[in-house]
Amino acid sequence: MYILSPEQTAKADKATIKLAGISSVDLMETAATNCFQWLHNKLQGENIKIHVFCGIGNNGGDGLVIARLLYKHNYQVNCYIVNFSDKRTEEFIVNYNRLKEIGLKPIELNNEKDFPEIHANDMVVDAIFGNGLTRNPEGFTKKLIQYLNHKRVFTLAIDIPSGLYANKSVTDSDAVLKSSHILTFQTPKTAFLLPENKDSVNTWEVIDIGLDQNYIESLKPKNHFITPTDIIPLYKTRNKWDHKGTYGHSLIIGGSYGKMGAITLASKAALKIGSGLVSAYIPKCGYEILQTSVPEVMVEVDTDAVLTYFNFKTNPTVIGIGPGMGTAEKTAQGFENFIKDNKLPLVIDADGINLLSKNQLLLNYLPKHTVLTPHPKELERLIGAWKNDYEKLEKVSEFSKKHEVIVVIKGAHTVVVNNDMLFFNSTGNQALATGGSGDVLTGMITGLIAQGYTSLNAAILGVYLHGRTADLALPATGYETFTATTIFDYLATAILEASNKKEA
To answer: What predicted TM-score, i.e. pTM, was given to this entire model?
Structure first.
């Protein structure tokens, strides 16, 4: 699914109106009717007072349509016009008059004295500011937003919470509505996927308003939200004549004394995701641990406690390196020699990234499309600090483009960054905030590359499946008892969904 900027959305609106031979009022009616239908399906005529707050632009026009439909279906509805300007759009005026014609006269809000009484069991529909907002709400409008936030009632935002920008950072958090749920039009907003907006964005879903898909495709959007529809075509079907050699040989390098769990998890993940063969190159102290824990994995050893020589004899298809490896001086030197000599596809995680951060000249030796999988602190060591989430994305995109690498930014909505293209993941939850889950992800991406997936598709598919296991597990495990090894228990179901053998 594409993520459109406000400018792209405006273009798609105009193109749809022209291509479909409809008016902008018709498009507004469709969008708002779909929002009303969602609300009506939830409420089923429940006797609840609904306060609809409308700005004087097209977002306000959406609110007027919703208020009209609520009123016609006998809901207790009050509609308010937030007069922050005297410049009303034509679409707003049409729907303002339609509302009055059926007997519901909107209440004008001009200052704080006009704010209505709202009770704990009431509902608020926010249609004050929309996707095109370019400056912070001020004056009594800002105070209205603060007033609504203070009430802590269920607040349904139409398209986007008022005061939130779709694709840049908020500079006045006190002027942003804290929504309970968002019904957003056609595509998600980048803002919904970034941690800095967590106070304003709780849950959301996309409402299809019928924008022309061919035109959207022609815009070639750079940002994507990865859903099951995007994943199913990526999955490579297996042939009955295939054998283990068909699916590649993953080599996982890492581990150190006391940190053999990381390399064990990564090796098992490469195996469980379907790599035909998996080898691990580890310190000698971990030999019995790995051979016992994952007997299907072949093992080569270095010195006793830390990796030093990186002189494996295996002939792999792809190498995943870094989990539990440590950054000892001997390891750092061996890692440098390895990076300078290696020509195979790479997935680099954990201490591999930390060593790259300390010796950034090594970035020049990485094969094209190397996948880096840092957690936030590792990413900061690699690219430096950032002021906000948008700057972080810009810096990672620049880094990806400069070094021709793919960066996986782990988080609530993990982002796969390839040059200036961003792929936000839709799966996963806070159960994955547990030690070792990142090591499993490294192994999964490595194992997918071994099977012939491109590095980009391996990263996207690996991140999606990794997150999906946590979603599948949640009813049984809750957040707290989910561990990295739990991922393996649900990986088969996640893969079956991606293969379209079971409904996603």
So the answer is: 0.96
